[in-house]
Amino acid sequence: MWRPSPTASGRASRPCGCRFPVPAGCSRTPRRSREITSKSPAFWIKHTTEGEAFMEDIFCYTSPQTASSGSGPLRGLKTAIQPCFCVAEWPTDAGSRALAGFTALEDATVVERLRQAGAVLTGLTRMSEFGFGLDDSRAGMAIRNQAADVELSLDLMGETRLAAARASVCGFKPSWGIVSRFGLIGLMPSMECCGLLSGGVKQIREVLKVIAGPDERDFSLPDEKTPDFSQGEINPRETTIGVVPEGLSNMTSEQRDAFEAALAELREAGFSLREISLPDFSLFALVHRIVGSVEASSSAGRYDSVRYGQRAKGAKNWNEMYLLSRGAAFGTLVKSYLFQGAFFQFERYDAYEDACRVRARLLAAMAEISAQADFLALPAVNPGVPDMAASLDDTYRQFFYTAFANVTGQPTLYLPPGAGAITPGLQLAGPRLGDARLLALGEYLLSARQGGK
Question: How do strand 375-378 and strand 170-173 relate by DSSP bridges?
Fold first, then answer.
């Protein structure tokens, strides 16, 4: 059985795993627009259509090139990316002060493949610090405002899917290990992956055809066959979609009714729905929190102001410089996460080992479920949690329905509700390496909404 690799890809000399050291005296930083007056996602959805000024608050850097530099299947496709994916000579700070002034010296593998396929890189969208959570993230808004056709987004615990829900677009998290992480500035090597946002599933499929596949520079990729992303057919009468009742246990009656109404679309399309019990569903978030924080604490150890980031002034010795600089490098949420990871790493390593054992058990349980149903249908958004999480507890409540896929490494797709629908969007999950068939399901459902067109 596949197990997520705990090792990061590439080399430790660069935050993105690329080959070259950071140039001395590098001072290039992303262009920053005026300070925004609200962080509410509803505020952004309402006002980003009112003027081009707000586009500057979606992008932290815009590309000086507007034409495609290559030819291929993605020629002319406007593609936005987050500043955790290295683009040669572009500022790449991953949304953190720890990497202020860092400029990438070579392209990430996904960026290189996009260029070769003819995609047009429109710029860098604002992201939360190291992609953790959605605070300060504008993921999906470039798609909503037609400033990009596709966006690459870091998915650590469901950020791509929740960003898609906020922007009312499609969001996809591929199976772990089919897309290279070389040139990605990540935080949790065994859980993170390159997510995709777009207005439709077809474009997501076309981009995955290009960026997925082996990469000799990413040593963490499993030696497995890449899924065939050619469009397949879905027969609803031969397809079973499972629903995990334990995943709905913390919903109010109104929220559950809304989810049941969303499931009605699947029934009307002819799919067979089946309840499949997974008593340990609530453990996914706990396992993610322990394992993810330990990996984050280890990954962030390189940001010491010696190799990357700003060096704090007034330090009397190296140790004081390290402590002061590290304290100033991270935001409150990430800093809390790193403290938690360090605790499990150095004080309660037995808890980390237990979490890894439970993770293996959850992987086995999910494999059994995959034998009983072709896909799973779950909510994506936890409506009882504020849009902007103020603590780690709020963050994990926010991602309660999405973190499971990062723990198991399986693909998930968020589909927004149809035009004029009052039901919530659906999160659909398939077995690991079942990406192509999951995308085919998404395309079938979107086509059914349009009368089969």
Answer: unpaired
For 254, phi and psi rounded to 5 degrees? -65, -40
CATH number for the domain that contains residue 142: 3.90.1300.10
Predicted TM-score (pTM) of this structure: 0.88
Q: Look at residue 19 and tell me if it is in a domain.
A: no
- How many domains are contained in the chain? 1
Sign of CA dihedral 39, 27, 140, 248: negative
Rounded to the nearest 10 degrees, what angle do helices 283-299 and 349-370 cross at?
130
Asked whether residue 147 is assigned to any structural domain, the reply reads: yes
Q: Which residues of 228-258 are buried (b: 16+ CB within 10 A; e: fewer)?
A: ebeeeebebeebebbbbeebbeebeeebeeb
What are 75-124's pLDDT values in tens digits? 999 999 999 999 999 999 999 999 988 999 999 999 999 999 999 999 99
pLDDT in tens, 304-341: 888 777 788 888 888 888 888 888 899 999 999 999 99
* Rounded (5°) CA angle 209-232-237: 150
Separation between Cα atoms, residue 135 and residue 131, nearest integer Å: 9
- Tens digits of per-residue pLDDT, 285-303? 999 999 999 999 999 988 8
- Closest by CA to 11, choosing from 19, 22, 3, is 19
Half-sphere exposure at residue 146, Cβ-oriented, CA atoms within 13 angstroms: 3
Residue type present at position 372 = Q
For residue 164, the enclosing domain spans 41-449
Distance from C-alpha of 184 to C-alpha of 200, rounded to nearest angstrom: 25
